[in-house]
Write a structure and sequence with these properties.
The complex is a heterodimer of chains A (220) and B (220). Chain A has 220 residues and is an all-alpha fold. Chain A has helices at residues 13-50, 52-57, 59-68, 71-81, 91-117, 120-128, 133-163, 175-186, 189-219. Chain B has 220 residues and is mainly alpha-helical. Chain B is flat, with a radius of gyration of 21 Å. The chains are: A mainly alpha (220), B mainly alpha (220).
């Protein structure tokens, strides 16, 4: 009979699979919230641009709140607020909702900047060529304004991808939570954190480099 | 309307404690910003003027800080360094993590600021007989300061918001204190709602005072 019991087991190749699966979850929640949030944010940005004082009184303060309160507080607050109004959301759904609204709040500002970046003379020219308001928006503002703010949109998207690590407070096992679980078991924090960090870095670094490359090229 | 009774009394009773914790949040954020500005300035100058290992070091600092989640950075300083026998207190974990992050982001802003000041001004100042030190402190830094003033303000807001991650490494600043009280009374929603309001107020005060300061600083 063994006299001592080993509580910790080493890092096995199988754990890499576990980390990889968690990385996919990080990707999944980020992609979902970024894509939905971007669409919502573009709509909000358009309302902010067109809505004048009505928007400044209604949407703007609400979006401002999501930008001025730490994401982690928003997550905990929403996760505990949902059952009060009778919604039974799992950590993934709550995280998704908050990350989406958070993205939308950030993208709204970017989108408004994009619409403002298109000069008024150009838009008047489009209208006087016989384009309708929506045609002008679709064929003039979207390509020109979108290009102007694309780098900052990439910045926002990467920020949300990194902030998705916070969903772990709700118990959603994404990459950082998974590495925490593994650390508890294997007691090899340095190795595991390096692997997790390398994944985030590998995802974020090329994209941010690409964005700054585009920014430089379009600035000329 | 809801099948839930809000209990605000325990929150109100611990409000003084929460406000005290908010001061701790501000303290750590301000300290991290001061250190971050100093280190960020060094990193930016190294990246602009030096080659070899120093430049390599500065570049990897900036890219690591910008391309990995802040929470990962905190975990790394908290648990990752434990592998080398370095055990920091929660306060130091948050301070080093925030400083690392802020320095990385600010270095990039400073670099942009320095690049925006044309080289000809340096040569003009030098040919007027100014020493390099005078050139930097009287010609370049004032102009760079104007450019990076708003990014610094934004980073200050981010530092306050990011300090909320201290909750996950056991630091009892505003979020950590809130979680402590919330888990003691099970009034999670109420506590975090009040905390959200406090964060919102802090952010607004920072933005407002920065705007007031800007009107005094940049009168000309």
């Amino acid at each position: 009979m063994e006299t001592t019991q080993s509580f910790f087991s080493g890092f096995t190749p199988y754990d890499l699979l576990f980390l990889g699966e968690a990385a996919l979850r990080t990707l999944w929640i980020s992609v979902l919230s970024i894509s939905i949030g971007t669409v919502l944010g573009a709509i909000f940005g358009w309302i902010l641009y067109e809505g004048r004082w009505i928007a400044t009184l209604t949407i703007a303060p609400v979006l401002d709140i999501f930008r001025s309160v730490p994401l982690i507080i928003q997550l905990v607050l929403f996760y505990n607020f949902a059952p009060i109004v009778g919604l039974n959301l799992d950590p993934f759904a709550s995280g998704l909702v908050i990350l989406t609204i958070y993205t939308a709040a950030l993208v709204a500002n970017v989108a408004r900047g994009g619409i403002e970046a298109v000069g008024l003379p150009m838009r008047r020219a489009a209208r006087s060529l016989g384009m309708s308001y929506w045609q002008d928006l679709r064929h003039v503002v979207l390509p020109i304004g979108g290009r102007a703010v694309f780098p900052s949109w990439v910045g926002v998207a990467l920020g949300v991808m990194k902030d998705s690590a916070l969903v772990s407070v709700l118990g959603y096992v994404e990459l950082l939570k998974a590495s925490q679980i593994l650390i508890t078991r294997t007691q090899e924090p340095f190795l595991i954190l390096t692997v997790a960090g390398a994944f985030y870095f590998a995802l974020s670094y090329p994209l941010s480099r690409y964005a700054s490359h585009l920014e430089n090229r379009w600035a000329q | 309307m809801f099948d839930y009774n809000f209990h605000w009394r325990p929150v109100m009773k611990s409000l003084p404690d929460l406000l005290e914790a908010a001061l701790l949040t501000l303290q750590v954020a301000v300290l991290a910003m001061i250190l971050g500005i100093l280190i960020g300035l060094c990193l930016a100058l190294i990246r602009l003027h030096m080659t070899g290992p120093a430049r390599w070091f500065a570049t990897s600092w900036v890219e690591l800080a910008r391309n990995t989640p802040a929470l990962f950075q905190l975990f790394f300083f908290g648990f990752g360094l434990g592998a080398f026998g370095l055990h920091l207190s929660p306060y130091l974990i948050v301070l080093t993590g925030l400083t690392f992050n802020c320095a990385g982001y600010l270095a990039e802003n400073f670099r942009g600021g320095f690049q925006a000041v044309p080289d000809t001004q340096v040569r003009a100042a030098r040919s007027l007989g100014m020493t390099p030190w005078q050139t930097y402190t009287r010609v370049i830094i004032p102009q760079v300061f104007r450019i990076v003033y708003h990014p610094i303000t934004n980073q200050m807001v981010w530092a306050v918001l990011m300090s909320s991650l201290g909750m996950l490494v056991g630091f009892r600043e505003l979020s950590g204190e809130t979680q402590f009280f919330a888990s003691r009374t099970f009034r999670i929603f109420e506590y975090f709602a009040v905390t959200a309001v406090i964060y919102y107020a802090i952010v607004k005060v920072i933005l407002l005072s920065s705007r007031l300061l800007a009107t005094r600083l940049f009168r000309y």
